[in-house]
Amino acid sequence: MSPEVVSNATYSHDADLWALGVIIFEMLTGFVPFCRDDDLDDGYQKTKQAIRRAEYQWPELPIVSPEAKDLVDGLLKSRVDDRLILERLFVHKWIVKHVKRGVN
After folding, report:
1. pTM of the full structure
2. Distance between alpha carbon 58 and the CA centroid of its chain, in Å?
């Protein structure tokens, strides 16, 4: 859930871009970026707070390329206005590097 969804605010397709960032993070690392299970009684509230603040850390392993981190970091911005927009997503250097051209 994006910060705007967690906060019960109005949201748009930008929440989907946030979700894409979470999915890519998990695919690259094998971890979810905002899980806070250190305190079972308060873990959900800590997770929601981490989401609202976009507080996450990249694990040391596996090694993730700077380009991939830049993409995810651009998608996981707490403020919608700071988040990577859809048009920029398709021309991001990590996406361009990994998309095969001419596939129908």
Report:
1. 0.88
2. 11
Give, in degrees to the nearest 5, the angle at Cα 98 between 95 and 101.
95
Helix axes 66-75, 14-29, angle to 10 degrees: 150
Tokens of 84: 């990577």
The model's pLDDT over 56-92, given as tens digits with 9 standing for 90+, comes to 999 999 999 999 999 999 999 999 999 999 999 999 9
Structural domains in the chain, sorted by start: 3-98 (1.10.510.10)
> 64 exposed, middle or buried (CB, 10 Å; 0-12, 13-18, 19+)?
middle
Number of neighbours of residue 89 by Cβ within 10 angstroms = 17
The pLDDT of residue 70:
98
C-alpha 44/C-alpha 39 separation (Å) is 9
Under 8 Å between Cβ of 93 and 46: no
Specify the pLDDT at position 100: 72
Longest dimension (CA), the chain: 51
